Amino acid sequence: MTGPKTNERPGTRAVLRNALVSATKVRVVLDLIRGLEVQRARDVLLFCERDAATLVGKLLDSAIANAEKNDGMVGDELFVSACYADEGRTNKRWRPRARGRATRIRKRSSHITVIVSRLPQDRLARMRAKQAAEISARRARRVAGGRRASEATQTDAREGARRRRRGKSEETAEAAEEAGIVDVDAEALAEAEEIVVEGPAAETVVEESAAVEALEEEGIVDADAAAVEAAEAADAAGATEVTDATESAETTEQEEGEK
Fold first, then answer.
1. Between helices 225-236 and 200-218, what is the axis angle to 10°?
2. 3-class DSSP state of 85
3. DSSP helix/strand/coil, 18
4. Residue 222 located in a structural domain
């Protein structure tokens, strides 16, 4: 038993009659979209270089609109179940030729029909699974890109903070050398500032430690552990400066001389 005829196929149709293009040219385009999902068929017609693709694309949009408006179907669940082009009327024209003869010109037309139907359940399930996989892949790529951007931002921030600390250490070392206190190594000072908590109190501790080391090298005072701990405690409270440390060292020296 033969199947249903083309013009008896079930589905929602759209018909364009007396299109000013031959049926032969239209059939080449219709063969490209027959059996495809409507979205893929639109993409094929969009990049087709034949003039008949424009007419077929408009007719496909009309068929989808009819299915959504009249039959209550979902546009994304449709496919091109059938499409065909029939011969329309042919207009005769004459062209003059040599020796008084004439040649007939046939201006052909066609009737174009596009039928869309709902996808079968198995094919619809495959299409939905493919769409879900594509959405998951896009989301994964977006998340991975966001993580890479965040890691790059954090790395730049850490590098910038390291540069600022190193520049600040170099400024402190230059200031100490200009004052004649001690020849401070900027690299060691930067490492010390990375260990000690940042802030005014930490800067005072570093400066006082440098001052005490300078006094020890000059032989002025031999600072013991208790004096150093007291100086660090006072520095943490923010109440001692380099001059206070120098005065306390001189007082300790005088007391030892009296004893």
1. 150
2. strand
3. strand
4. no
